[in-house]
Amino acid sequence: MGWKKLTVIVVAAAALVGGALSLSMYLTRQQEVEMEVADQKPQPPQAGDTTTLADMENMPIYYDDDEVLLLPVRNVVEGLGGSVSWDREKKATEISFYGKKLVLNRGSREAELNGYEITLDREVEAINGCLYVSSDVFSEYFATEVIWDSSQQLVTIKTGDNTKPVIAGRMLEGVDGERNYSAEIPVVVGLNDISYEKSLNDAFESFALEQLASFPNVVPAEEAEEAAEEAEAVKQSGEEQAEAQAEEGTAAEAEANTETEANAEQAEAAEETADMPKPDHVRLGFVKGYIGAEFLSFYWEVDVDGKLSSQGVNVDLQGQKYVNILDLTASRDIETELHVYAEDVDPENYYISADKEWILLSNDEENGTYQAVSVPAEMAQSVWKDKYKFLIA
């Protein structure tokens, strides 16, 4: 079997734990970690095989057909100065690196990042006794840049700016008879204010669940049971209150009747909603935009039976507030000015791309589509408030 070399660049502060790396990976005086890449895919261990990690050579693996680079978790993390441990309670592998903790489950896409449930793009693989993950795990969650040179079979990993938050995703999928849904929910990790971080993630989840409201099995059973108990408690409280009001006399009785009528109207409206046609499929995803320590931007894409719509989300992380176009600009008539680029301008519906482009999102409900229109940087420079001009390329 032939072997080719690749180089992994490690930050100057990275420390190599003695003996942590096998002979296939070592730290040089230039603080580079060299690894050898197998030309052929190692075969996964068969049932009954016994493997010892100390005896294994753990090399990066590149799958040409899928164009996916897999990296050995322990070798790379410890080579970059992080740590890898086994969580006995969760029966999972925990990575601690760059201020984040990632919990991996062998053979699964389900993981945890700083305590939040997330879904990886690819299952964690166990090959020859070593855990492997896609290189995207390091580039997206740990502020590293992974570069693959297919011509020379070389991979380079560079550590980047860890002050920026990251956006992971959590998948929800299910069926209701012949109907089905899938939703990828953004999960923000790395804000200085953990409480605000949680409130944002709760809001994103709530939006997703609203889109999936026609599917009865979206909410986990435990949460559904808790909600049912709360509803029952509210019902009992209402009955007790009604009895007390009835004892107070005619005026109180009239007020109770009014409230009862209002509740009846709400119940009737709920029944009408329940009788409305339900979609056969709902798909919900999001497109990442600009992500920085000061600002966060992305947009939702909702597909209901093939009809698409979009909704931008733009958050001033320093001010801890959502920002619409009117907040972003100093022009008093910005909507009219933007009609040159988009026929329908919704002040709430835009996003800032990763390349710092100002993108207007316009939904066409009649045709079930939406448009994403870029606004020239010169236009943005002329109308944006100074505090947000750092978002313009």
Description:
The chain has 393 residues and is an alpha+beta fold. Helix content is 26%, strand content 36%. The strands form 6 sheets. A 6-stranded mixed β-sheet has the order 15-16-17-18-19-20, covered by helices on one side. It has a 5-stranded antiparallel β-sheet with strand order 6-7-8-9-10. It has a 4-stranded antiparallel β-sheet with strand order 4-5-12-11. A hairpin with a 4-residue loop joins strand 19 and strand 20. Helix 4 runs antiparallel to helix 5. The longest helix is centred in the middle third of the chain and has 27 residues. It starts with a strand and ends in a 10-residue tail after the last helix. InterPro entries: Cu_amine_oxidase-like_N, Mao_N_sf.
Query: What CATH first level of the largest domain would be assigned?
Result: Alpha Beta
Low-confidence stretches: 1-56
Fourth CATH level, the homologous superfamily of the largest domain: Fervidobacterium nodosum Rt17-B1 like
Count helical runs: 8
Largest sheet: 6 strands, mixed
Side by side, the strands of the main sheet go: 15-16-17-18-19-20
Number of domains: 3
Roughly what percent helix?
Answer: 25-40%
| Number of E strands | 23
Question: What is the third-level CATH name, the topology of the largest domain?
Answer: Heat Shock Protein 90
Estimated structural class: alpha+beta
Distance between the termini: 48 Å
Oligomer: single chain
> What coarse outline follows from CA principal-axis ratios?
globular
Any idea what the CATH architecture of the largest domain is?
Answer: 2-Layer Sandwich
Overall pLDDT score: 79
In percent terms, what proportion of residues is strand? 35-45%
Give the radius of gyration.
27 Å
